[in-house]
Write a structure and sequence with these properties.
With 307 residues, the chain is α+β, with helices and mostly antiparallel strands. It has two domains: 146 residues, Alpha-D-Glucose-1,6-Bisphosphate, Chain A, domain 4, CATH 3.30.530.20; 146 residues, 2,3-Dihydroxybiphenyl 1,2-Dioxygenase, domain 1. Helix content is 26%, strand content 36%. Helix 3 crosses helix 4.
């Protein structure tokens, strides 16, 4: 069989995602993100190793909706930041996956290609595991996760003044928590008050939110003591999140210049882990996140002041 004719043993899908390439790359290469959206509908994931570099391993267990576990081991063969990932899936079935990313302003063109060893293997995988439909569902889940991430991050900055605040993530009980904090401190919600997911316009091409998710809070701010601002959002599992101890809070820095933002980001991420590279976002923010060497989560968001 000619190696140049691979049409009978490959799956290829393309999609233009409504998110900048920096964010798309982040949710592809950070295990905390990819675990939330990877796999067909109904699957969850446990990742034991994810070393995103040429020769690095990615080991995960996919938990099916019928409670069946699927062990997966892949080797990264090529990694070009913001451009390409090539993985060899070592577990059965064996295949090569090539994912390319092409920036287009605040959008990203994604091309996902899976090449199997033979047409017989390809037919078996498609018939038995419905790999083609699974890949489509996987891309749909990725797109929904990106839309949710962007909606959340757009709310992080509601003023152009420099300030420091604490940002909390809740699995769905933000309103209960903030009504409690409001009673304790005797203050009133600031900014736009309580904003819910249902207040946002529906993203083009995305399935509608459930009535329950529409009632969840996307952003709320409450001044507490000494001018400090407490902010929060709901991050429910129905939207691809999993809140646990360690990712349920950020110290949110909103400097008054790009230069100060970059300086603080580089200093606090040194010796730690960059969880999202500092960069320009579609809402006008200069945004990034990191975990410092002591395990503390930091968020950075500079927005140009209007003259």
């Amino acid at each position: 069989m000619s190696q140049n004719n691979t049409a009978n043993r490959e799956i290829r899908m393309s999609r233009t995602l409504n998110a900048p390439v920096e964010l798309v790359w982040e949710v592809w290469t950070n295990p905390e993100h990819i675990a939330q959206w990877w796999g067909p509908n109904g699957f969850t994931n446990t990742i034991s190793k994810m070393d995103v570099k040429a020769g690095g391993e990615w080991n995960l267990v996919m938990h099916g909706p019928d409670s069946t576990d699927y062990n997966n081991r892949s080797i990264y063969r090529e990694v070009v930041k913001h451009e390409k990932i090539v993985m060899e899936h070592m577990s059965a079935p064996h295949f090569i996956a090539t994912i390319t990313f092409k920036a287009d302003g605040n959008k990203t063109h994604l091309d996902w290609h899976m090449l199997f060893d033979s047409s017989e293997q390809f037919i078996h995988v498609v018939k038995t595991f419905k790999a083609d439909e699974g890949l489509k569902q996987n891309i749909d889940k990725l797109n929904k996760y990106l839309e949710t991430q962007l909606s959340l991050r757009k709310q992080y900055k509601t003023t152009s003044m420099a300030r420091t605040s604490t940002y909390l993530n809740f699995p769905g009980n933000t309103e209960e928590a903030f009504l409690f904090y409001k009673s304790v401190f005797g203050t009133e919600f600031s900014g736009n008050g309580i904003r819910r997911f249902g207040d946002l316009p529906a993203a083009e091409g995305q399935p509608p939110l459930s009535d329950a998710d529409k009632k969840l809070i996307i952003h709320v701010e409450l001044p507490i003591l000494g001018g400090h601002m407490l902010m929060a959002t709901d991050a429910p599992e129905s939207m691809g999140f999993k809140v646990n101890f360690g990712n349920n809070y950020y110290i949110n820095l909103e400097p008054d210049s790009r230069e100060e933002t970059k300086k603080l980001f580089e200093a606090l991420s040194a010796g730690g882990q960059i969880t999202m590279e500092l960069g320009d976002m579609f809402w006008g923010g200069y945004f990034g996140t990191c975990i410092d060497k002591f395990g503390v989560n930091w968020m950075f968001n500079y927005t140009q002041r209007e003259n």
